[in-house]
Amino acid sequence: MACILRSQSVLRLYSPIRTSVRFSNSTRKGLVLGAYSGENNKGVELTEAAKQFDQEVQGKLLEQIQLSGNEIKAGKSFTFWGLHKDYQAVSVVGVKNRCDPKDEGELRCDAKEDVRVAAAAGVKALNAAGVKDISVESFGDAESAAESSVLSSWAFQEYKTKKQELPSVGLYNADDENCKNWSRGTFKAEAQNIARRLADTPANLLTPTIFADRAQEILSPLGIDVKVYDQKWAEGQKMGAFLSVAKGSVEPPKFLEISYNKRDCNPFVLVGKGVTFDAGGISIKPAAQMDQMRADMSGAACVLATLYGLAKLNIPTNVKVLIPLVENLPSGTAVKPGDVIFAKNGKSICVDNTDAEGRLILADALCYSAELKPKWVLDIATLTGAMMVALGDAATGVFSNSNSLYQSLEASGSETGDRVWRMPLWKHYTKKISENAAYDLNNISKGRGGGSCTAAAFLREFIPEKTNWLHLDIAGVMGPDNTEPYLSKGMSGRPTRTLIDFIEKQSQ
Questions:
Q1: The Cytosol aminopeptidase domain covers which part of the protein (predicted)?
Q2: Which of 340, 273, 338 is CA-nearest to residue 303?
Q3: pLDDT of res. 42
Q4: Half-sphere exposure (Cβ direction) of 125: Cα atoms closer than 13 Å
Q5: Phi/psi of residue 268, nearest 5 degrees
Q6: Which residue positions in the chain have pLDDT lower than 50?
Q7: How many CB atoms lie within 10 A of CB 324?
């Protein structure tokens, strides 16, 4: 029997994300099962769930596999029809052979990733065949199977007149432990889908004001406190860097302070870059692919989604989320290259390039974090194109002043399959933005190269004294051309699951 927990809608007020839909009894049902390739790819070995199913259908499953060529490759599937009265379609997908050597240099838990790839391949095959009610075996790791099943069965299609039916996914042959783990994976994947949806929403439909409304609609029903501060509040806080970016747009800036408190301790603080559209300001971007800058608030989407996941998992922790929200547009009121502005901590900044705006809004948010007495601070932003050049979409670039925090984050990235990679945070880069005669800092380096590193060095100037800190640059992994086998084209929501895992472990 299938686990009763199935992927469910999570945003009722906001035209809900449909990771599942309900169907009548006449809907065709499908089942995803696994098989390992034999030695030298000859013969097959069914997983335990597939063996039980094969016995139930008197050996017809293995017979059909043999008739199909008897060759199972990892991530490839065969779909068979009419083997079982309850499951009209059965997709058998290859799982990477368990005895294959593991490559530690990949910084990824191969066993978990193999399960994700297999489950997604089966779900996608059945979905493409028109099967919308899908049960998936655990492959020995129900949490990982749930993650990729829910991620691969979702698509952003909010503004299409005719929407594709999204499949419902649930767990096959579930005991209590597997059901619990499936629900964990489902909540983590649904959190990432929230980030995907927010990041892909067109900028005219997700202004700073609308984003603030969405945050309340998503999080308030979970008992999370969402405070929305306006421009006057920011002026009182002397957030000159944050406010300077908003000057070019008619859309008013917003600053969110979100509290998830289920433990009496100093909070972990997450800061997410919330530029809901980035045209570059006076230093305007090229027109080609500028539409992708609707996702320049992916950092904000990620920290919001992380809170959703923590709440659904009922993690006992204390987390504060800060989200500065602006549009960065050119106009007669916009900040100009060469203008000097002042951050909340009093430091003067020459804005040599108005397209280096994310670090300006983060600077004031990082200064504000000092008032929260954090255990540590983590900021996340689509900050530099240089990070895409450095790492592509393989991993999130991370800068940190704490070896232990980075190592913990790296371990979480290995578990989730959404990896991170450490970048240098040397004083060498600080000199490139701080050696100026007339002001404290430039918002860009005077030299060439190392753009991600000088951006991180800039942010370090606003970290509360003696505070452990992580800066995540997600410009390379935000999308839209995803290469992960369980993500469709579009904004990725990465690395939401890594942050959830990291904070859960930090809370323990």
A1: 353-360
A2: 273
A3: 59
A4: 25
A5: -80, 135
A6: 1-2, 4, 8-26
A7: 32
Nearby residues of 79 by Cβ (< 8 Å), 6 or more positions away: 89, 90, 91, 92, 125, 126, 129
Q: With beta carbons less than 8 A apart as the criterion, state whether 306 and 496 touch.
A: yes
Q: Which domains does the chain have, with CATH numbers?
A: 2-198 (3.40.220.10), 201-507 (3.40.630.10)
In this structure, what token pair is assigned to residue 472?
Answer: 């995540």
Give the strand pairing for 318-328 and 133-136: unpaired
Tokens of 365: 């948010």
Please, is 70 exposed, middle or buried when counting C-beta atoms within 10 Å of its C-beta (0-12, 13-18, 19+)?
Answer: middle
Number of Cβ within 10 Å of residue 124's Cβ equals: 23
Strands 29-37 and 133-136: parallel
Whether the link from the prior residue into 208 is cis, omega within 30° of 0, is no
What confidence tens digit (pLDDT) does each residue in 201-255 have?
999 999 999 999 999 999 999 999 999 999 999 999 999 999 999 999 999 999 9
| Residue 37: its H or E element | strand 29-37
- The pTM (predicted TM-score) of the whole model is 0.94
d(CA 327, CA 285): 14
Answer whether the bond into residue 101 is a cis peptide, omega within 30°. no
Residue pair 327/249 in contact by the 8 Å Cβ criterion = yes
Contacts of 328 (CB under 8 A, 6+ apart): 245, 248, 249, 275, 277, 278, 279, 280, 281, 296, 354, 355, 357
Structure tokens at 428: 């060498």
29-37 and 89-95 strand pairing? parallel
Report DSSP state, residue 111. H
* Nearest-angstrom CA–CA distance, 477 and 397: 9
- The pLDDT assigned to 38 comes to 60
Catalytic residues: 285, 359
Tokens 């999370």 identify what position? 224
CA 16 to chain CA centroid, Å, is 18
Residue 497 is classified by DSSP as H
Report the distance separating Cα 258 and Cα 499, nearest Å.
16
What CA–CA distance (Å, rounded) separates 384 from 453? 9
Query: 3-state DSSP helix/strand/coil percent for the chain, to nearest 5?
Result: 40, 20, 40
